[in-house]
What does this fold into?
Amino acid sequence: MPPHHTKDKGDLGVAKAHADVVSQGFIALFPATEHAPFDLVAYRDGAFHRMQVKYRTARAGAITVHFRSVWNDRQGTHTRPTDKSAIDVVCIYCPETDACYYIRPSAHRASVTLRIAPSRNGQRNGVIDALAFRSLADALSPAPPSELVDSDAAPFVQHP
It folds into this structure.
């Protein structure tokens, strides 16, 4: 059977998320079906957290996730919004930084864009720095990290 490039990327994203979740002190659990709305469950301190994993390549120094599912069949292309009540956190794996970023979908509308490099025009208002989203525990806490960088904030930190 020929390789399925999109599926391979998804598998790599889940593997990277698995390693990152474990390195942060969580136990990673996997559903016994591909039909669950989540890819893995992070467990720690008696709490289970459903996680959907997205593999996203950076474009123009940013990674964007749209909260939707898209699939094709003989009737055409279909889109369905993500049921945000079915997942607790989205893990975004970016191959350019080889890092995972954790966001709560309930804190965003239809999509989110995280900057992994400063914008070319120097804009800082409304820019969400990806480095603020490396901690799964922070994403799961009642008070998530500030998602907007204000104009008086420290300079943007470049990824290594």
